[in-house]
Specification:
It is built from twelve helices and two strands. Helix content is 77%, strand content 1%. α2 (22-60) packs across α12 (285-340), α6 (133-158) crosses α7 (175-198) and α8 (203-211) packs across α9 (216-245).
Length: 341
């Protein structure tokens, strides 16, 4: 009877007219076209940036533009190394400061917070994403930076033996304040992604760890974090891409010194900031150099996305291949402790 029903269903599907299958084909064609348009748009951006940046690359050379340390508009010398370094420093600071706080927030709201606190706290964290970037920049330069100057100078004096971190005088616009502002700006993105990934952890994994005598922290360390590693890495990389491309807030709080900073609490520049500051009055080779800076920023963002893809895939494969043995190995000491008691 089952084979008869199956064959009857197959005949019903095969007997449909081409007009009845038209919506499926139209949906497939539309989605394929939209995906192809996105890819074509990315290629168009890249080709257009390359075309506009060609005069600057012809003058400086690709490697000369990226690794030269001189950005002098009056002398028409354009080296983007200080801009690239400033972008990487502020983005790295954003990750170092923002990701642990975002992950701790996600773990608290998903695993530890009371039900009456969880929803308001989640909404408050997500509201950080609704604040305009210019507000972050103004708050950072007029409120946060002056109040942190004393603490920054104390750290610079005490860590004068540490390269790039210690020594020198603290300036109000500096790398550290820019990285701190970026950390606050990426916090809602990383926290939301981490929280959603933590929510997908099977309940029986957590209950098994607790049943073997694990504390709440041991349960999070052995059952939750290994399961969520790929999603947390993906969220962190998405936050990194957000930090690399931020413009207005960084422009306000990093300063406008197109040179390599001597220490963490000195002024610098970034790729996005130099484009925002100078594009309005740029002409000729200067304009081409700004397009070249945009191309470097575009390629840097693509590299971050590619690295994120590789890290997420590797973390997913690691979890799939070794999650069961690792869980068994980590629960053996807990089980032994319970048996000893």
């Amino acid at each position: 009877m089952e084979s008869t029903a199956l064959s009857s269903g197959e005949r019903a599907i095969l007997s449909r007219s081409p007009l009845a299958r038209l919506p499926d084909r139209a949906l497939r064609f539309t989605l394929t076209l939209l995906a192809a348009l996105i890819l074509a748009l990315i290629v168009y951006f890249f080709v257009r940036l390359v075309g506009e940046a060609r005069p600057a690359f012809a003058r400086e050379g690709v490697f000369g533009f990226v690794f030269n340390n001189e950005w002098n508009v009056n002398a028409e010398r354009f080296g983007a190394l200080p801009l690239v370094v400033g972008t990487l420093i502020t983005s790295a600071l954003a990750l170092l400061i923002g990701v642990p706080v975002a992950l701790a927030t996600a773990l608290y709201t998903a695993e530890l917070a009371h039900a009456r606190v969880r929803t308001p706290l989640t909404i408050l964290v997500e509201l950080l994403a609704a604040v305009p970037s210019v507000v972050y920049g103004l708050w950072g330069i007029f409120f946060l930076a002056p109040r942190l100057k004393g603490a920054e100078q104390w750290v610079a004096d005490r860590l004068s033996w540490l390269p790039f971190v210690g020594g020198g005088s603290v300036t109000i616009p500096n790398y550290f304040v820019a990285g701190l502002i970026l950390a606050i700006m990426i916090l809602p993105i990383v926290s939301a992604i981490s929280r959603e990934v933590i929510a997908t952890v099977p309940a029986d994994h957590k209950e098994a760890a607790l049943g073997l005598g694990a504390t709440r922290w041991e349960m999070i360390r052995t059952a939750v974090l290994p399961f969520c590693r790929a999603g947390i890495v993906g969220g962190a990389m998405l936050g990194l891409g957000r930090a690399i491309g931020e413009t207005i807030a960084v422009t306000i709080v990093i300063g406008d010194a197109p040179q390599l900073g001597s220490h963490l609490f000195g002024q610098g520049y970034s790729l996005a900031a130099v484009i925002a500051n100078e594009f309005g009055e740029a002409q000729g080779l200067h304009r081409s150099a700004l397009f070249a800076a945009g191309l470097v920023l575009f390629v840097l963002t693509l590299l971050v996305n590619a690295i994120a893809r590789v890290l997420v895939s590797r973390a997913a494969r690691t979890r799939g291949s070794s999650s069961t043995p690792r869980a068994a190995d980590e629960t053996q000491p807990i089980a032994g402790a319970v048996a000893g008691v």
